[in-house]
């Protein structure tokens, strides 16, 4: 059931995406509400966590998980258990939508949900049968039915059976049309912030976390560009309200004050915490525009730097060490030269946060840092430990953790850029007919990093864009990409991810989740569909051949 009054029906009654947890934590702390926070990475984790805590609690808040499956069927809870689900995954399971007692959906109603009507999905077939039975019994008399009457009943039974079969087929088609594509709705962080705003409990920290949540969707290519622009406009109004409300107060604050600003900044990843040269080389937008994996691309980069008129010494040193005179006009200089090199979209709407007078971070900086901490593979730490560290980096009182995350993000981005260059130069991307396919082999540098979903998603997005920029095959330019990377060598498993075709105007709807299920079912491939994103699965290496063959047949 959709919650219409989020304050009365949710808050007054009472996960593995760290930023979405922050706002609800702050609200609970504010009102001294006791709770237990349990990070989960997939459906198995969620089931285990629920079994451990179901005796202690009646109310469960699921952040960014639970909406796209029949939750009651999955968890088998007691009748008094109530689930509040704030999830961006779409489509929402129809059973969750029409359950009025145990499932409460915290989802913005202006999202394009397209949920089928109740009658189209759950209309009781027995109603038609009973209606038919009643009409058949109206003429029952004391005499036994004649042969003519029996023939009439048999014909009527055949017709009713046919009609019921047609209804079932129609119902399956409606459900298939509704469920065939996976996509994402409004960020859970933004939904939680608006809950705080309605209750007049919103703070600048909550606003910043909601900015990071929306930016995370853009960085990981989960929402269309227009959806991002719309959500940014919503946040901009809140930022203006907060800045106006606290303007006098901030002027009297110490160096620990916090200020959020709306900006048109550059699509250069972490450039304020890196050298400009390294940022250009490791940003998907500029790297693909120049085709930096080629000799001609390197020449173009040198021409671009020369056109900007910036000394190489300045370009190659850390941003903080650059001359102030250069930094003051840097964005304008880069934008002017970028236009000459057909990079007209190098600016993007975003937000920055200022902590005191020294520390400034773009929202995308924090997204990359949190993701790097969340999927850190350099130390043998548990996913829960990584989750807590990623959560810590979102606090303004723990900037040291944020800087550590940025350092890890740089390593990850370098690994992605080098892997993309290697795949393009060695022709590892193969056309399989209805889709492109790339398989990273064991022994590939930094391959362990790509056993994690967020890192593999960034690599997949970067690689597909690079391939589209480099290939001359027009048909291949409009194909989706499936990528596989080693997951567990001892178990012989790989992680498989599918993304839709590369397009700036794409609606970001992904059909691979359903396709993976069908292919695995038809070939009895040993797969594990444990991730909350259905387009990410685990597959036994031995079954890879027949699984791909089934996908080709299914999508052709």
Keywords:
single chain, alpha+beta, Rossmann fold
Overview of the molecule:
The protein is an alpha+beta fold and about 550 residues long. Among the domains are: about 5-110, 3-Layer(aba) Sandwich (Rossmann fold), CATH 3.40.50; about 120-180, no CATH class; about 430-555, Roll (Diaminopimelate Epimerase, Chain A, domain 1), CATH 3.10.310. It contains 24 helices and 14 strands. A six-stranded mixed β-sheet has the order 9-10-11-12-14-13. It has a three-stranded parallel β-sheet with strand order 1-2-4. The longest helix has about 35 residues, at about 145-180. It starts with 5 loop residues before the first helix and ends with a helix. Residues about 10-15 have low confidence and may be disordered. Keywords: Cell cycle, DNA replication, Nucleus. It is found in: Nucleus. Pfam families: CDC45.
Architecture blueprint of SSEs:
Layout: H1 6-11, H2 18-30, H3 43-53, E1 59-63, H4 71-75, E2 82-86, E3 89-90, H5 94-98, E4 103-105, H6 118-122, H7 125-137, H8 147-179, E5 183-184, H9 188-198, H10 204-219, H11 225-245, H12 247-251, E6 258-266, H13 276-282, H14 284-290, H15 295-308, H16 312-316, H17 324-328, H18 330-340, E7 347-355, E8 359-362, H19 363-374, H20 383-392, H21 399-425, E9 430-431, E10 436-439, H22 453-470, E11 481-488, E12 493-499, H23 512-523, E13 527-528, E14 536-540, H24 544-555
Parallel strand pairs: 1-2, 2-4, 10-11
Antiparallel strand pairs: 3-5, 6-7, 7-8, 9-10, 11-12, 12-14, 13-14
GO molecular function: chromatin binding; DNA replication origin binding; single-stranded DNA binding
Keywords: Cell cycle, DNA replication, Nucleus
InterPro entries: CDC45
